[in-house]
Amino acid sequence: MSFKYPVVMPKMSMTMETGELIIFHVAVGDHVKNGDVLFEVMTDKIDMEVEAPADGVIEALVANPGDVVEIGKPVLIMLTETEVMAFDFGSDGEPVAAVEVVAAPVAPPVAAPVVPAAPVILNETVKAVPKARVEAANRGIDLRTVRATGPDRTITMEDVNGAQLDPAIAKRQAANKALIAKGIEMTRSIAQASFTRSVNANFDHATLIAAWAKVLRNRPDLAAHQHVGVALIIESKYGSALPVFRDPDQLTIADLVALVASTTQAAKNGKVPVAMLSGATTTVFDLTTYSMSSATPLLFPNQVTSVTIGYESATTKIVSLTIDLNFCDFYDGALLLDALVASL
Amino acid sequence: MLTMAEAVREAMSIAFDERPEVFLLGEDVGIYGGAFGVSGDMYHRYGAERVLDTPIAELGIVGAAVGAALSGMRPIVEIQFSDFTAQAMDQIANQAAKIHFMLGGALHVPMVLRTPQGSGTGAAAQHSQNLEPWFASVPGLKVVVPSNPADAKGLLLAAIDDPNPVIFLEHKLLYKIPGRDPVPEGATRIPLGVSKVVREGKDLTIVATGIMVNKSWEVAEKLAAEGISITLIDPRTISPLDMGPVFESVEKTGRLMVVQEGPAQAGFINEVIAQLAGSSSFGSLIAPIKRLAGMNIPIPYAPQLEKAAVPQFDDIEAAAREIVKNWR
Question: Is the entire prediction scored with pTM above 0.90?
Fold first, then answer.
C-alpha cells in the first residue's frame, strides 16, 4: 500500500509567510530515505534544508527553483509506504496528510541551471564610532545594514542618522503586532487555564526540560506523538526561535545541559539545527530574563500544555502551567504542576 | 601685563613676605637673577640668607631642600633646566615623594621644585625636553604645568602652601610672554587639581598642556571665524588630574583632540585618552580621538628640525579642521 504525500513549504518562524525554493537535491524517480535532503529553502531569517519525512520515491516536483512558495503549499510529491502525519508546532494546526494534488510535474532541475537570488551581504565586522553604536542600539538599527561613509569605511553619526530601520526588523515588528492582535482575539474563544506555584529552588533550563518531560512521559494521553518534544523559546535578534528537545528525559543530564547550551547559542545566532525545528508537544518559556513573574501564554496548535518560568525574588521563581481544557481538566492541571514542582 | 617670569617672581615674593620659612635655592638664582631671570632682584630684596646661590650639584640642591622641608622650612628649588633633574632624581622620586607616606604621615615635605622645560630655544637635546611623565608617574608628587602668568602665580602660591612636594614645570618660551588675562593683584590661590575650561565650543574638545594651550587657543580663534567652535581645556595640574570637565565637554562635542609638546610615546596626555576611553563618556564619541604630540626623537639642534619635532600652530589647525570635517 502506498500513499501520496506532498512535501510542503515548512513554516520555519512565527512570522514566515513564504519561502523561496533555492534548489532541489532530488529528481523524479529518486528513492529517498527518511532524513535525506529533498530541497533548500531561503527565508528572510534562515536558509534550511528540508528532509524527507519518510522513506519513499519522488513522484513529482511541483515548484520551480526560484519560486516563492506560500507555507503549507506543496513543493514536491512523494510516494511513501507508510502514512505520514505531520504535526508542526508552527503551522496552522491542520495535519498535513495524503491529499490528491493536481499539478503538472515540472522538468527536472538539471534542465535549467539554478541561479539563486543573491543573498544580502552583511558586513560582519562593522566599524562605527562609539555614539553610532549607542544610537543604532537605541533605534533597533542593525549596523551591518548601514552604509559607511566615514574614513576607513567607518560608520559615522551621519550614516546612522540617515539610516532607515532595518526592513527585516520593521517587517517583524509589524508581523508581531498582527500576531498579538490575533492572539488577543483568539484568547476569548479558547478554553485554557493556567496554574501558578512559587518554587524556592534554582534550576537551569536543562533541569526544567528534563523534569517536565518526565512528568509528561506518564501522560501519553496529552501528546499527539509517541515522543515528548519540549520546545524552548529563545529570543534572538532574528526573532523567537523554538528549538525542540526530543525525549530530553532520556539523555543524561550532563548531555542535556551541553545540548541546551549549544542550541541556545546557535539559536541566538539564528541557526537552529533543522532536526530541532519540529516535533514539539509542549513549550517552555523562561520569563526571568525579562524580570517578569508570569504570563498567560497561548497554547500552540496541537499542544495542550505549556510552562513558563517567572521571576519572583532572588531565590524564588514562579512556575506556571497552562493547559487546554479540551483535553484535560483543572484536576489534571493541578496534578501536573504539582508533579513538576516536586521534581524540581 | 606681567610676563610669566614676572608672575612667578611675584608669587615667590608674596610667599617670602607671608612666611619667614620660605626660601629659594638653586644655581645662579641669587646675584645673577636666575638663568631665565625669574628670581631677578629677589637676592637684593631678601638677601643671601633667603636667596641661596648653590654649587652646580643638583642632587645636593634637592637633598638640602628635602632636609630643610623636613625640619620646618618651605624651600623653593630652582633647577636651571628640567633636563638636569635627572641628576637629582633619587631625592625627588625616592625621598621627597615617599617620606610622608613611609613614616605614616608623621612628617611632611613642603617643598616646591620649579624648573623650565621645553624646546624652541635652540638649546639642543639635553636642554629642551618635556619630562612631565617622569614626575606624573611617581605617586607622592604633585605636578603643575602652568600655561599663562595668571595661573602661574595662583598655582605657585598654592604649591608653596602644599604640605608635600610639588613639581612646577615652566615652559621657557612662555617666560617673556604676557598672558591674555591680567595677573590678579594680591595673594589669591588657584587650587591644585582643578582643570580650567579656557573657552567653550560645541564642535571639538581640545585638552592641551603648557605652551600648547596657547597654540590651541590661537587655532580656536582662527577656526571660530569659520564656524568651528572649540572647547579648550587646560588641566593645569597634571597630577592629580581633574578629568571632570573633559568628560562633560566630550559628551557635548563628541570629538576629542589632545595636544602636548612632549614625545607621544608614554606621554602624559595619553592618560587623558585612557581615562576617557574607560569612562561612560566614551559612548559619546563621534570621532576617533586625535593625539598631537612631539615626535619620539631627541629634540634636534637645527632650528627647522627642532620646530618640526613638536606640534605647531599649523599642525593643530589642520588636525582640528580634519576631525570636525571628517566625522559628522
Answer: no
Contact B254 A133 (CB under 8 A): no
Phi, psi dihedral angles at B64 (to 5 degrees):
-65, -40
DSSP-H helix ranges across B210-289: 211-224, 244-253, 269-277
- Give the domain ranges of chain B: 4-174, 196-326
Mean pLDDT of B61-79: 98
**Which of A127, A153, A157, A160 should we substitute to test contact with B (largest number of B Cβ atoms within 10 Å)?**
A157
Q: Which of A173-177, B2-6, B107-111 shows the lowest mean pLDDT across its residues?
A: A173-177
Q: Of the candidates A130, A133, A158, which has its C-beta nearest B328's C-beta?
A: A158
* Two domains, one topology: B4-174 and B196-326: yes
Check if CATH label 3.40.50.920 holds for domain B196-326. yes
Known catalytic residue: B218? no
Q: What is the pLDDT of residue A98?
A: 41
Cβ-contact A195, A320 below 8 angstroms: yes
Q: Which CATH architecture has domain A191-343?
A: 2-Layer Sandwich (3.30)
The CATH code of the domain at A120-189 is 4.10.320.10
Least confident of A28-32, A312-316, B39-43, B47-51: A312-316
Record: contact B286-A133, CB cut-off 8 A: no
Cβ–Cβ contact A129 with B under 8 A = yes
CB atoms within 10 A of CB A226: 8
Can you give the residue ranges of every domain in chain A? Answer: 3-111, 120-189, 191-343
- The grid cell for B67 is 632636609
Contact between B328 and A157 using a beta-carbon 8 Å cutoff: yes
A92 to chain B, any CB pair closer than 8 A? The answer is no
What CATH class is the domain A3-111? mainly beta
**B4-174 falls under which CATH superfamily?**
Thiamin diphosphate (ThDP)-binding fold, Pyr/PP domains (3.40.50.970)
| Buried residues in A54-63 as b, exposed as e (16+ CB within 10 A) | bebbbbbbbb
Is B127 labeled as catalytic in the residue annotation? yes
Going from the first residue of chain A to its last (344 residues), give the mean pLDDT of each consecutive group of 10, the final group possibly shorter. Answer: 80 79 90 88 81 87 89 87 50 40 40 45 76 89 87 91 72 73 68 83 88 86 77 82 90 91 87 82 83 72 85 84 84 88 85
pLDDT for the residue numbered A224 = 58
Nearest-angstrom CA–CA distance, A318 and A312: 6
Q: Distance (Å, rounded) from C-alpha B65 to C-alpha B11?
A: 19
* The one catalytic residue among B6, B10, B27, B58: B58
Cα B141 from Cα B133, distance rounded (Å): 11
pLDDT of residue A114: 44
Selected residue with higher pLDDT from A202 and B62:
B62
Sign of CA dihedral B91, B46, B210, B198: positive
